[in-house]
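Build the 3D complex.
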Amino acid sequence: MNGATHIEVRDLAMGYGDFVVQRGLDFVVNKGDIFVVMGGNGCGKTTLMRALVGLQRPLTGTVLFSGEDFWSAAEEDRDQLKRRMGILFQGGALWSSLTLAENVALPLAEYTALTKAQVDEIVAFKLALVGLAGFEEFYPSELSGGMKKRAGLARAMALDPEILVIDEPSSGLDPLTARHLDELIVELRDSLGTTVVVVTHDLASILAIGDNSIFLDADTHTMIATGHPRDALQHGDPKVRHFLTRGGNVSPHDGDSPPPRGGPAEAA
Amino acid sequence: MDKAAWQLDARPSGADELTIALGGRWCMAAALPSPDSVAPQLAAGVRRVRFDTTGLSDWDTGLLSFLDSLLKTCTARGIAADTTGLPPGAQRLLTMALTVPEQTVPGRNNGPTGICAQVGTAMIEFVRGMPAMLAFLGEIAQSLGRLMTGRARFRVRDLWLEIEEVGPRALPIVSVISFLVGLILAYLGADQLKLVGAQIFIADLVAIGMVREVGALMTGIIIAGRTGAAFAAQLGTMQVNEEIDAFRTLGIAPVDFLVLPRILALMLMVPLLTLYAGFIGMLAGLVVSVTIFDIGVFEYYTETLRALELKHFLVGLAKGSVYGAMIAFAGCLRGMQCGRSAESVGHAATSAVVTAILLITIAASVMTIVFYQLGI
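Done.
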């Protein structure tokens, strides 16, 4: 972790047609951080993720990866930048007609000059990292939800990306499996120095792994807080504290109530 | 369930007060009364409503929905309702249901849905869809270009799998349909040719008809229903599972990987199926002619050979290829355009078949006219 700016978002607005989902987004993600994008359902978290990974052009604003403007770059340059990112989609998004090994091997076969044997070795290693050694010949439909996510993570990490973008890592997982996945993400960050952007509304996950965060508000269609999730919980905007305490003893309209007692902050 | 399980009694309990007594079982399984049944009593200058549920033995949502409507009517008429006589659970649930007022959600189209509006909307959507169709056609063209220069990324194994699925597995249904269509053509010809005593020309009609036109058309329609719909459903499901997004984020064109093998498979297989359909149709013509119309096998065979020219086969093959490309185009287009729900996958499959059959019919007409003008 060297703390240098890795991703910079300036005055970003996203939407569909003339419906603006989020506007005025300004934030910086540092190298090696686990950056959490949080907010309630329908606030535009996934839309922001799609703008970051090149799936949906924002209405206005810029996204810079290590200083390079992503959306104004030529298509080929953008493809180059995309290759430096790994994405784990909500349901894993494994290619259903390919086995796990083929899923992980495809990016390697496309973008490296490795031999077949080398690719196979890397695939076996990546699958072992996520605890799926021995599942090489399985098809995605033969796996449980948690295994699909881990396999998706192995594929996202196939090209050793600088940035890992994860959409709702814990959705559909039981609390223990979700925690294992969180630990895996932290472990990968610690050992590889990968910058991780996590889109989530899972409180346990936010407080356990987040180094920095933004909170997207569905009512005002903009971000209302940045900073470490624990700071946001203790001193942040009342709306953010309301969210982080599951609507506990902080009212969203109450400007100066004390931090909640016995909440996840003290447990953490 | 006993029909008289519930009891409802509304009677005045003061100058402007009405007490509604609810008794027995108020469960959804029984035929419950409409809230309108107490409307006459409510209309008679009542200012307050109370409830008496001492005789109530059992209740579920049936009771709640009755009370919900009743309380809304009371509010609308400015009648004060005292719910303290209701079971505590029912009170809490009603409070929950009534605290958040009904919302008009922006973005929902609540506009007029008359027939003209629907036709207009459909037309506008069709025109708006044209650029997307052209863009997709362009992507396919680019992808074919990459294939020619050996830079397209798709797996040959996928192509073989598609070929197997599209070709050999469609043989049974193509056989049945083309046999029956050949039989129909033979009967149709026999009826007309009998008038001039030239029933031997059944062979010409069936051979040229099947090989040039009907074989390709029937195959096209069968494959549109069988394979076009399957393509749309497969790609649509991949869209729902974000598999297509996963390709895009890797910078791999989904068209290369998913659409190209499907288009190639159909362009290769539909012409072959067309040829096969032609032969089966001629076989049906032979069977009918020999058994029903007393034409000799050898006679029929010679007449067929005399009628058929290479150009008829080429026309049939050309049509087969074009129809195959159109089915694959329609199926893949609708699949790639699919939304993110199970319902939209179904819609994509239906739309793929409709689009494919429309395209096939238009292409068939255009080609028939062009070939006629060219004298082919």
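Chain A touches chain B at residues 19, 50, 53-55, 79-80, 82-83, 85, 87, 89-91, 93-97, 106-107, 110, 155 (CB under 8 Å).
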